Amino acid sequence: MGEANENARWQGGTGTRRPRVVIVGGGFAGINAAEALGKLSVDVTLVDRRNHHTFQPLLYQVALAVLSPAQIAQPIRTILRRYSNIEVLMDEVMGIDTGGRSLALASGARLGYDYLVLATGATHSYLGHDEWKPNAPGLKTLEDATEIRRRVLLAFELAERQMVEQGWHPPLRFVIIGGGPTGVELAGAISDIARLFLRRDFRHIDPAESEVILIEGGSRVLASFPEELSALAEKQLRKLGVVVRTGTHVTNVEAGWIMMGEERIDAAVVLWAAGVAASPLGRMLGVEVTKRGAVPVNAELNPQGLREVFVCGDLAHFEQDGHAVPGVAQPAMQMGRHAARLIAADLAGRPRPGFRYFDKGDMATIGRLAAVAKIEWPFKARWGGFVAWITWLVVHIYFLIGFRNRLGILTSWAWTYFTFSDSARLITGDQTLPGWQKKIDASGKPPSTGE
Amino acid sequence: MGEANENARWQGGTGTRRPRVVIVGGGFAGINAAEALGKLSVDVTLVDRRNHHTFQPLLYQVALAVLSPAQIAQPIRTILRRYSNIEVLMDEVMGIDTGGRSLALASGARLGYDYLVLATGATHSYLGHDEWKPNAPGLKTLEDATEIRRRVLLAFELAERQMVEQGWHPPLRFVIIGGGPTGVELAGAISDIARLFLRRDFRHIDPAESEVILIEGGSRVLASFPEELSALAEKQLRKLGVVVRTGTHVTNVEAGWIMMGEERIDAAVVLWAAGVAASPLGRMLGVEVTKRGAVPVNAELNPQGLREVFVCGDLAHFEQDGHAVPGVAQPAMQMGRHAARLIAADLAGRPRPGFRYFDKGDMATIGRLAAVAKIEWPFKARWGGFVAWITWLVVHIYFLIGFRNRLGILTSWAWTYFTFSDSARLITGDQTLPGWQKKIDASGKPPSTGE
Q: Do A51 and B77 touch (CB under 8 A)?
């Protein structure tokens, strides 16, 4: 297909052409932009290389086998199907031509735009040590979550097998690197499933004897929260048996052990919750980006000199009152909706309104019945413990996309917490336990390895 | 660990040693054997290389995105945790020493037994053409099901993308090779999801225009059913738009097309539901096996000359009234329970009862609201259409392990069928669409491929 055809398609045949808005990324920012644009007189194409939107704040519950992937994810085209002016394209953006206002796609096609909403988010960064990645997976996608689930559950299976076959097992130790919300939630949840849920399933090991170590380079966990809540979170983690080590830097991550300076810790599973890097698409705009690859934007969410491009969510670096807006769900949703408002202003010939992040607060759970909550709206409060956890529960259920998911998740949680029983504890993918070094099949040939 | 220690563990220290029963395989036969042995005065070890039991009759619904993996699978140790005399070991059997009564495990350990229940089932066979496997996945495990789901959903995504980018797409054709129950159920279900569920999600393709072709080498589909039901099934399939080609042999399967003699058919997705091969463990017993690798057993479920070994389920070849008992769930469950009965007879010093398969009937669904049912008990009947489908529904819900799963599946079905909306349509794993041949990242380097 040549350029001519492409242009014909994208620019329509008649004189009454509607602006084409291309949204790249189906996360919180992209979906919120699309839903707001669905009500405007524009044609929208949402491009994502995945077919589903993931409710990232609950990913850790998939990683720890409380919820199933389908409970926190939904196909993007299903979410948006009520908007007849929106089409969804599963493709990957390989380049951005800001001069020609078009995108180069992995399929080879070009996609023209009048407005571009760039919202491809962030991924984990290993701070220059990408070789640590296979030894310490991070948590950004459903695949990451099932991989972590696989590793954690296999660690318990291996220890049980070692007890049966050898009469002993090495310490069942889980190390989480990074004391932000994800690290804190993973640490609390691992401690919980070990003590509460797995205890009744094993004959020879006591999962409650497992150790969870949370390592943070800074001076406190949850650095983005007020100090009093960091202290409360540490206290609650310790109550769950989690060892919290702040001011500690990891210097090497190998399969089965980590180094912190001269100190070595062996671990059954190491998880990475430390660094964040913005999506590589930010660099394709041809503007200056921050150290972590985010795109600085003005109050109209534009990168420098690009009025028709809006960068939203974790990919954007937006400063307000001297601080960068954090890379969490709330600002992403607000930016996505604001991008639609900016386009609506252009269509109506009105001046563009400036973006201002409205901070309703922030929360992190610590295990099953505790959390910390920094509430900014509708009133100001700093809560810890059970009250904060109930607040977390209500807010997360309320924001989950799709009624069925809400109901399903409530049922799952109730079922899991009352019966300590769960079907989500499936090990899928590679089933090879450590120590299955020399597998042979009936024919005597060694099998191909899964990884 | 030396042999001496192993024996100490397995043979106990006292004179009142209870017999040790080792069950290999956590499918229908293994789980039913374990549950019956849980009530006897024996020590049981169930070994499986996976951590979960899968309700295989509903796997095709996971493959076609109606149900989620966690709804039809459950960890084996959770199913069996109420029996304190049963331990579950996640390990793989690499060899059987029938003389020394012990198993060699992938971990390197040896596991002694007094009684061995071998129930490792069957897998698909490509009839000597293993090179077809990557081009036509079969359906035996949860991973198979999510792989088929991935391929089917990606085919629709690709066609939509081709419409957007090129204005046309090649025929959206699905070929299923093998007209047994799995093939018939897959064909009916693909036709259903295309016509009913996906239709509202796409803007540019009409999923209802997809073609489903079911290829069977024999003269009729569902050869294990009475002829009248085969004819009825074909009629119902045709009503769903499925092209049924009997007496047709596939001679080659490549990526994107198949050959049947001189005839070539291009296909977006090819699925394999033709051959079945027994697990390789049957060959480790040192007895004669059938062509498909099954182990002939007598009425006490013993392979020739091995009174303390019981082979159950799809791995067993048991003849009754001149016919081999079919490799489906019912006989597997009955054999598993019977193995426990044989051990109980030994313990009580009673003569061993002979096994007899009690055939309650067989069923296969054809899409959403039709099925064929051959009912043998509690009355004899041959049903087709909606009545058979309701019967199928009741029987499958009744036999699903775990109340929560039953409820969850009923809710999912009701939700899916009334709203045509579903969250289970997630594409996970490799997200690469055909045609993304040359992917580059921001740095200009080609990425590693997912497969």
A: no
- Cis amide linkage into residue A434, ω under 30° from 0: no
User: What is the CATH code for B18-121+279-348?
Assistant: 3.50.50.60
pLDDT per residue as tens digits for the range B345-366: 999 999 999 999 999 999 999 9
B4 touches A: beta carbon within 8 Å: no
ipTM above 0.95, yes or no: no
CATH class of the region B130-275+361-419? alpha beta
Residues near B285 by beta carbon (within 8 Å), at least 6 away in sequence:
B96, B98, B118, B295, B303, B306, B309, B311
pLDDT tens for A320-355 read 999 999 999 999 999 999 999 999 999 999 999 999
Question: What's the pLDDT band for B196 if we cut at 50, 70, 90?
Answer: confident
The pTM score is 0.89
Domain parsing of chain A, residue ranges: 19-121+279-348, 130-275+361-419
- Options 2.30.110.10, 3.50.50.60, 3.40.109.10, 3.40.50.970; CATH for A19-121+279-348 is 3.50.50.60
Cβ neighbourhood burial of A378 (10 Å; 0-12, 13-18, 19+): exposed
| Of residues B148, B426, B145, B122, the one with CA closest to residue A428 | B145
Assess B430–A contact: CB distance below 8 Å, yes or no.
no
The interface residues of chain B toward chain A in range 392-421, judged by CB-CB distance below 8 A, are 402, 404-405, 408, 411, 415, 421
| Contacts with B9 from chain A: Cβ below 8 Å | 167
